[in-house]
Amino acid sequence: MGGATRVYAAQLAGLGVFGPDGESVGKVRDVVVGMRIARQAPRVLGLVVELVTRRRIFVPMLRVNAIEPNAVTLATGSVNLRRFHQRPNELLVLGEMLDARVRLRSTDVEMIVVDAGMEQTRTRDWLVTRLAVRERTGRLARRGPLQVVAWDEVTGLGLAEITGQPQGAQELLAVFDTMRAVDVASALHELPLKRRYEVVDALDDERLADVIEELPEDDQKDVLTYLGEDRAADVLEAMNPDDAADLLGELPERHKDRLLELMEPEESAPVRRLLAYSFDTAGGLMTPEPVVLAPDATVAEALALVRNPDLTPALASMVFVCRPPSATPTGRYLGCVHIQQLLREPPSHLVAGVADADLARLPPTATLGEVTRYFAAYNLVCAPVVDDQEHLLGAVTVDDVLDHLLPEGWRETGLPETEELDQPG
């Protein structure tokens, strides 16, 4: 074993994992420990590694060759690709141990676990020997100083205590803060229900909306039900209208209607329009919030709009030129301009002068197969959806199409492996 022999678990989150020849395996998402009796330090069993396909697998610590500040190197490129499943006597350090309430044996002061220190022994085993803790205070109180204590200097970290006691989620959210919404969703899916709900309670509506959009369908419905009607409506308002419509479309009619009633009218209106279309048509796939400009807008204005970091790359790839009103359904649709064309034009030119009025449009009733063929034929990642009266209704992006083409449950099970690593027998 090379590299560090003492590390803190939170420092491992997101580190790249590589095989002995430098081949990328995935990223560290958590550390699995086996709880032991009495005051014995837990044994580190291995790492939860997320592959490029989003599947999470278990890599035993015996296969870890080195832990460096910026990467984890394995001793072999042979790993078991079976999906990770947590066993009853195991704990996830980041997912479950952080934010746990403990008491110092010496003073009986209540503390919160901030991080866990791992150390390799002479027998090559890894143990959680130390804890970074902070005194528990009220939500508005100033955070106390960080202390590092030995594992056996605290009480309250038994398996039953951690899984049964209520926890906050402040420290776990600090780990999630640097992660993309899709990665947070993957982590949330793997957490026990108790811990999942604690994280959901702690996330603000905007961040939770982003995460819910990336969850498997069953998890989406479970979280929405847990939130209660009022907060569920607030989170739906923060979601992209097409994602909100997809989720509401899976709910019982009574529940769906109730949530739409609780949403603000200006937020529910585009969702209601999307729900009028079948989910597997251009109307059901589209987002009603593409980048729309008036004919007298300049190229410089168009480029400024597509720089918005909240736009997905696909949605930012094309602007649509329409007569007022600019909100969908718009006035008469005049054409579209790809971002590559915008970059080639003088900033002072009008977008109407460079708009492509001849590109085929998708009717809202176009089937998923027709939409797929459209993207293949025109080599685009974004396409206009226009009705019979020449009003722009929205835009379909290639990521929306892929979501419906991939196998059911792909967010939960991960994508199929195209090149499997050797699996032990």
TrEMBL record:
Presence of keyword Lyase: no
Superkingdom of origin organism: Bacteria
PROSITE patterns: CBS (PS51371)
Keyword Signal: no
Keywords per UniProt: CBS domain
Ranges for domain CBS: 286-353, 355-413
InterPro entries from the UniProt entry: CBS_dom, CBS_dom_sf, Mg_transptr_MgtE_intracell_dom, MgtE_N_sf, MgtE_transporter, PRC-brl_dom, PRC_barrel-like_sf, SH3_actinomycetes
Protein name, UniProt field: Mg/Co/Ni transporter MgtE (Contains CBS domain)
Source organism of the structure: Streptoalloteichus tenebrarius (strain ATCC 17920 / DSM 40477 / JCM 4838 / CBS 697.72 / NBRC 16177 / NCIMB 11028 / NRRL B-12390 / A12253. 1 / ISP 5477) (Streptomyces tenebrarius)
